[in-house]
Amino acid sequence: MDLSGHPVLVIMAIAVVSSLLAEIHVGIRVPVVVWELLFGILIGPHVLALVRSEGLLDWLGGLGLAALFFMTGMDLELQKVKGRPLSLALRGWAVSLTLAFAVAGLLHVLPFVNAPIMAALALTTTSLGTLMPILRDSGKLDSNFGNLVLAAGTLGEFGPIILVSLVLTHKFGAWQEAALMLAFVAVALAAAIVALRTRPPKILALLERTMNSSTPLPVCFSLLLLAVFDVLSERIGLEAVLGAFAAGMVVSLASRDDAGKVFRGKMAAICFGFFVPFFFVVSGMNLDLQALLHSWKTMLLVPMFLGLFLLVRGAPVILYRKDLAKNERLPFALYSATGLSMVVAIAALGVRTGRMPSNVAAAVVGAGLLSVLLFPMIAGALLSRSARISDSQGAKLMRKYFWCLLQIAIFSRTLLR
């Protein structure tokens, strides 16, 4: 059956089915984005070839990427994790970034990893949106452990966005790019100050009155701001996703009060209910599965990247010795190393800009999928009383795992000579 003429119907059907499947608990709740990626791979040109990724579908996928970063900015709650959790998260992400650059040097040695910088930046991510429902379901969201994970996840989403935008900026010279970045930050800060301090009663009354009308002005203004920041960032040579993220932060600051709950719910419904599924399904369709499965060398990249996720994002746990109990340290490392949303976004940007080959992008996304499926489940088991192991036993398991990955890398290098 040729469904290429009805791409919106197919994507919306996948969004509904994915949401239903995500409600099924079989040891772990598989996130919606995982199902959307898997269905995208299934209907894509490399498996069933039911729908082609071109024209309207690619355009909607781009809008979905912007909506994803917009909602990431909206969900950023620095007030909730300020103080020591945020300070630890900053230092921890600096450790991850240092390790990521070291990994970039090692990846450069491997001839079949031709995107060391983009791959290394993907390793510094944490999927906060994936972890939120997991922590909420486990009752850990409002605990000290949950606050520390939220802070680490916040930096794991915010930091990579800034760095990826800087890496992909190439329209002007270095000094011009730095000046334009500062100018963009100034514009975003000015918009944030206006959103926080300028609240004329008549305008607030108008916005509140139209919230439940057929044309809700707050939603329209937010989408307009998203479009303005998106275009502005792109015109000055930055990645458009940075503008979407900044717009989300500005809107978030303006809607933190109780009156903004209805508005935030509507924005989440529009973005996650319509735009974001297009991005993940189209990303799955564009995932070069054949390039990944065609070569065993490329297939080895999946467990290698999975181990590097745990190394790069899990290593900062050494900074939390005074803040986490012994039985919480390994689960914290596993939660921090759970990455998918930002990994898919970075891989898509890397392929689009020619900075990441499709086979490497497929391997990174594959490792991200496995991290979402495995790491939270293992962390939850370690936190439960029935499956708790000692910190020393967990360290031994991690050392054995990384030793096996090192042996695989050495063996692969030997065969390539």
What can you see in these coordinates?
- It is a single chain.
- The protein has one domain (66-272, 288-416): Na+/H+ antiporter like fold (Up-down Bundle), CATH 1.20.1530.
- Helices cover 76% and strands 1% of the residues.
- The chain has helices spanning 7-22, 32-43, 56-75, 78-81, 84-109, 116-123, 128-138, 144-168, 174-197, 201-210, 217-235, 240-254, 261-286, 289-294, 296-299, 301-314, 326-336, 341-352, 358-383, 391-416, and strands at 25-26, 28-29.
- A two-stranded antiparallel sheet has the order 1-2.
- It starts with 6 loop residues before the first helix and ends with a helix.
Number of helices: 20
Helix content estimate: over 70%
CATH architecture: Up-down Bundle
User: What structural class do you assign from the helix and strand content?
Assistant: mainly alpha
Low-pLDDT sequence parts: 386-391
Number of domains: 1
Strand order of the main beta sheet, please?
A: 1-2
| Global geometry | globular
CATH first level: which class? Mainly Alpha
Overall pLDDT score: 78
Tally of strands:
2
**How large, in whole angstroms, is the Cα Rg?**
21 Å
Largest sheet: 2 strands, antiparallel
Strand content: under 5%
End-to-end Cα distance, whole Å, is: 47 Å
CATH fold-level name:
Na+/H+ antiporter like fold
Element order, helices and strands?
HEEHHHHHHHHHHHHHHHHHHH
